[in-house]
Amino acid sequence: MSRWLSPLMAFCLSFMLISTFAPIVGITTDRQIDFWALWLGTVFILALPFIYLEFALVKRAKTTALNALMSLTREADASMQWRIAGWLSVIFMPFLAGGMLANISHIGLQLIPTSLPENIIFAGLAVFAFILSFIPRQILSILSIIGVISSLVISQVFGTHLTAWHMTSVTFVEWGNATLLALVAGGLGLGIYAQSSVNSLNSTDKATPLVMPIWLAQVLAVIAFGVFAAQTQISEMSLLVTVLFGAALLIQLAKEQLQQRQVSIVLQYVLLLAPLFIWAITLLMPVLNAVMMLWGLVSCLMYAIFVGWIMKISHLRKALNFSSELFYNIWRIAIRVIAPLSIILALVAVIMGRF
């Protein structure tokens, strides 16, 4: 599989996930210089080390994240309970796909009048996304990039009404939102970018040439969202179609991890469809949105603790093969100390902001 597939997926999924989480955290059209500077800072301080983390897991085990934890816990003489992190992540993927479809369609229904109930519309979209998940990943990625670019162009052509960039005071809740957007809205904590680069990882000694394009693609997605707003029927429809492809990608990636873990076909469908279709209960959307944010952060926290404190140092050093010991030490501090503390603070901030 092409080594550029993962950066392409990183740009598309990051843009779609940001579009999903932006209304939840209140930055759909508001452009605060201080918040966006904080957001970009967390993309550098947290997202970049986390991409290295996921590549270290997959490169060491030479398989996808869910399967990798089987061997990695044995190598580290760690409790089998750490394998729960992999299961949480793989079940979170269809749940996140459902959240994308539910939130984007909910906003779209405010601009596009229809007599159909919202839950029926969501169910139709979810079924279509599940069917699309059987399309080859390269085709889905190409459709995704076409959709993202089309959404960006349409939003400009048909009017993007954004507030002027301005300064505000940074709050504790905004710190949590920035961490959420950098990690969960970046598609991190799932191992999906390393999953799509397994072949390239196994044929190269260093992780950096594969990690940096993915990280730069995520930064580009943040910048692209700075000029985007779906406030017309056509722009919202374009975004909804695009999100269908993104949801299909997440379902496909989760399905691949379950298949490699040799989960029975019946259980695969249960684990994929139940988290996806729970969003059809539209009355629960505020609660499900809160669960989506907290679940994503908890998955990231578990991976940060496992890699930073449980895995053997020698295995990590060999898997990442940094050009300098200094870079490795900086990365290790980021994963062992900065990432867990930041995620814990973000969890507190999200709870304070939602409840």
UniProtKB/TrEMBL annotation:
The chain crosses the membrane at residues 36-57, 84-104, 116-135, 140-158, 178-198, 210-231, 237-254, 266-288, 294-312, 333-352. Keywords: Membrane, Transmembrane, Transmembrane helix. It comes from the Bacteria. This is Sodium-dependent transporter. It comes from Acinetobacter nectaris CIP 110549. The lineage of its organism: Bacteria, Pseudomonadati, Pseudomonadota, Gammaproteobacteria, Moraxellales.
